[in-house]
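Hi V.,

Quick status before I head out on leave. The structure for the redesign project is tokenized and pasted below; the design run finished overnight.
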């Protein structure tokens, strides 16, 4: 099976008119991934002509992977679109997870390649680049003093795995769309955390297929898979208030204990939630790029809904919303409440920087230098760095 076959199969599954496939077609994605896995010896063979200078620069960037200014778009270009594989592998090495969990290096690489390929590169936002960005943000949070001093290696392994896999096989449309179009995943998961359940189950299937954890006892594997699910399910944005209320209550009572595994797991859930929606807390030049990408995905869904005579989902009508309007609402109702609590929990220079970026980015959208509010995603796509779209 060639890479072209993979591309063709996956093109049929996303935000085109034919993306909503019956179960059989969705499972065929997995078959193709399996084939690609067995026909690939090593990821370095995939791009034999890649400029060695780029590889050197990518390695150089990884030395500063803990910087909040880390430019994932540039890193993705330098790593020839393999940012998720290279970054996650590097972080596993950095934390000595390979040695500690006796992981087979080849199985790890193959697993990460399968993860990268299970993301839909044609999605403007929910693709492997977003997963790489979330993984890098998660690393920054794992390095925060309170977490760094108390998290176990198992917590760190799960945190990184969850970040890398949390949006696996995302179709580029939201749960509302899946429900109103009677998609089989909505039926399977009874309209509840439909996408997140699918991301989790897909991650588990890739873990098992790769054999990455096959040397562990079945009880340990099962425990890891369940905790992985609990982390990924926490990224369901429609349940944000539940998590936030619990977080706020813990902070008010000052009763989070790092020697308690349940508390540490809850902190990991909150860290992953922050990493998932941290775009407005990045420097403006990065934050702005992400804003246009997510808007492009929303508007693409709206276009499909319009063609199918379905009610347009909120934020998806390109004739009503702008990038700026969407961002102001997103920051006000979701990002600010979450990050203000995170800053209470973790009073560090990083939290201060994130709040500062969020405030100034919101100001930029509220008081746009003329072009921001009225920009359409079509016009701004010209400003994206070469190779950043769909990579
Ligand atoms: Zn995400």
């Amino acid at each position: 099976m060639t890479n072209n076959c993979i591309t063709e199969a996956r093109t049929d599954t996303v935000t085109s008119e034919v993306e909503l496939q019956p179960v059989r077609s969705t499972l065929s994605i997995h078959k193709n991934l399996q084939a690609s896995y067995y026909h690939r010896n090593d990821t370095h063979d995939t791009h034999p002509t890649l400029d060695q200078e780029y590889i050197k620069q990518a390695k150089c960037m990884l030395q500063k992977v803990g910087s909040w200014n880390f430019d994932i778009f540039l890193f993705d270009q330098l790593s020839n679109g393999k940012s998720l594989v290279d970054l996650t592998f590097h972080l596993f090495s950095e934390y000595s997870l390979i040695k500690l969990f006796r992981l087979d290096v080849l199985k790890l690489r193959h697993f990460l390649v399968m993860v990268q390929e299970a993301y839909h590169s044609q999605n403007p936002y929910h693709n492997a680049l977003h997963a790489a960005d979330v993984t890098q943000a998660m690393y920054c949070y794992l390095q925060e003093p309170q977490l760094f001093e108390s998290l176990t290696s198992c917590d760190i392994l799960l945190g990184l795995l969850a970040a890398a896999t949390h949006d696996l096989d995302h179709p580029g449309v939201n749960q509302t769309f899946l429900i109103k179009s009677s998609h089989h995943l909505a039926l399977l998961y009874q309209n509840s955390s439909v996408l997140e359940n699918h991301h989790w189950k897909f991650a588990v299937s890739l873990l098992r297929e790769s054999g990455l954890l096959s040397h562990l006892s079945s009880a340990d594997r099962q425990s890891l898979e369940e905790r992985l699910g609990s982390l990924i399910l926490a990224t369901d944005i429609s349940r944000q208030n539940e998590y936030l209320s619990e977080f706020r209550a813990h902070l008010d009572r000052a009763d989070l204990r790092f020697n308690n595994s349940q508390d540490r797991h809850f902190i990991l859930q909150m860290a992953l939630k922050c990493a998932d929606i941290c775009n407005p807390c990045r420097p403006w030049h990065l934050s702005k790029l992400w804003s246009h990408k997510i808007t492009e995905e929303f508007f693409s869904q709206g276009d499909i809904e319009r063609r199918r005579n379905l009610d347009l989902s909120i934020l998806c009508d390109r004739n009503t919303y702008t990038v700026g309007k969407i961002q102001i609402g997103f920051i006000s109702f979701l990002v600010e409440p979450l990050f203000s609590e995170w800053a209470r929990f973790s009073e560090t220079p990083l939290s201060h920087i994130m709040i500062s970026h969020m405030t100034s980015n919101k100001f930029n959208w509220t008081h746009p230098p003329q072009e921001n509010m009225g920009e359409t995603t079509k016009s701004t796509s010209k400003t994206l760095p070469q190779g950043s779209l769909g990579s």
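Above is the designed sequence. The first helix runs from residue 3 to 11.

G. will cover questions while I'm gone.

Best,
W.
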